[in-house]
Description:
Radius of gyration: 20 Å
Number of helices: 16
CATH topology: Amino acid/polyamine transporter I
Distance between the termini: 32 Å
Number of domains: 1
Subcellular location: Membrane
GO molecular function, one term: L-amino acid transmembrane transporter activity
Strand content: under 5%
Low-confidence stretches: 201-205
Transmembrane segments: 20-40, 60-80, 100-122, 134-154, 166-185, 206-228, 248-281, 302-319, 325-342, 354-373, 379-395
Largest sheet: none
InterPro entries: AA/rel_permease1 (IPR002293), AminoAcid_Transporter (IPR050598)
Keywords: Membrane, Transmembrane, Transmembrane helix
Structural class: mainly alpha
Amino acid sequence: MIGAGIFALTGQIAELAGPLFPLAFIAGAIITGLSAHSYVKMSNTWPSSGGIAMILSKCYGPGAITGGAALLMALSMVIAESLVTRTVATYLLQPSDITSGPLVPVLAVGGILFAFLVNIAGNRSIGMFSIAMAVLKIGGIALFGILALWSSGFSFSEALQGNKDFGYTGSIASVALAILSFKGFTTITNSGAEITKPHRNVGRAIAIMLCVAIYLLVAFGVGSSLSIDEIIRARDYSLAKAAQPALGQIGFMLTVVLAVVATASAVLASVFAVSRMLAMLTEMKLIPHGHFGMPGPIQKHTLVYTVVIAAILAVFFDLSRIASLGVYFYLIMDMIIHWGVFRYRREKTGAKPAILISALVADAVVLIAFIAMKLQSDPIIVATGIGSAVLLMGLERIYLHTWFAELEDAHSH
Length: 413
C-alpha cells in the first residue's frame, strides 16, 4: 500500500501545513487506521474481489447509494492514477528544466498506457511485476529518507526557515491530502477473495505503521534538506530536489528513477482494481454498460474505460486540481461507508461503534477544512468536485429509480 502518492503529495501537504508538515502524515495515519476498521471488518465477514462495491451493497443494497458511492471510489482511484503518472512525468522532465507544456501530459498518458498493456497480459504478469516493484520501491524510499537526514546531520532546521504564517485550517486541510497517500489499503480489500485466509490476513496486510515509518522518513528527509519555501517552489518534484544536497545530481536522478518504479507499481495495482470493481458493478446492474464494439469479457472493457478516463484527467488537470478531486470523491465515499457499517452492519461484523463514529467525524472535519482552504485559492475545483459527486449520485438515482434496495438478509442493527 506504499504507493507513489508520497512523490506527488509531499509538496502540496507542506504548502498547506507549513514547517510541521510531517505531522500531517501522522494525523493521516491515525484517521486511516480508524477508517480501515470498517473495511477490515466487512472484508473479513464477506471476503470479495469486489471490495468497496461489496461493502456498500451489504450496507445499502443494490441501489443508487451503493452505485454512486462505488463510482466515487472508482473515480478517486482513477484520479490517483492520473496524479502519480503526471507527477512522474514532471520528475522525468526536471533534468531538462521542463515544468510545463505538452510533454508532461504526453508522458503521463504513456505511463497509463503501459499499465494498460501489462494488465491486458494477465494476472500473472501483474503479480510478478508488482512484487519486484514493491521491494525496490520500499527500499528506495527508505534509503532516500535516511540519506537526506544523514546529509543534514539529522537536523530539521531547514524546513523551519521562512516567514509565511500557516494557520490551523491549513494544517487540518493538509491531513486530507495525507490520507490520500494511505488509501492503498482499499486495493487490498478489493483482493479479499484472493488472499490466503482472508479473515486473518486482510487486516495484517494493511501495514499502516510501516507506511508511517517510511513516510515520516521521507518527510523529515525533505524538511532537513530544503526550507519550507523551497519545498513549496519545488512542490511537484520536492523529493528529487531534496536529494541533491545529499547526493548531488546523481541523487536527483536516482530519485527520478525511484518515482518511476513507485508509479509503475501503484498504477498497475490501481488500474486492475478499478476495472474489476467496475465489472462487478456492471454485473450487479448498478451501472450501465456499453461494449462499443469491443470483444471479450466485461472486465476488459472496464479496463479500457479506466485508462481512458485517467488519461483525460492527466491531460486536462494539473497536479493540485487532480489531488483535490481525489480528496472530495474519496472522503465522501469513505463517510458513506462508515455510516452504512454503523447503521446496518456493526452487529454482524463486530465493528466498534465508537471507532466508526470517530472515523466518520474525522473525515468530515478534514474535508470541511480542505474545502474552506480551496474556496479561497481555487473555488472552481471545489464546485467541480462537489458538483460532480452530486451529479453522479443523481444520475445513479435516475438510472436505478431508488436510493436503497432491501437485501435478502435483513439489516442488522
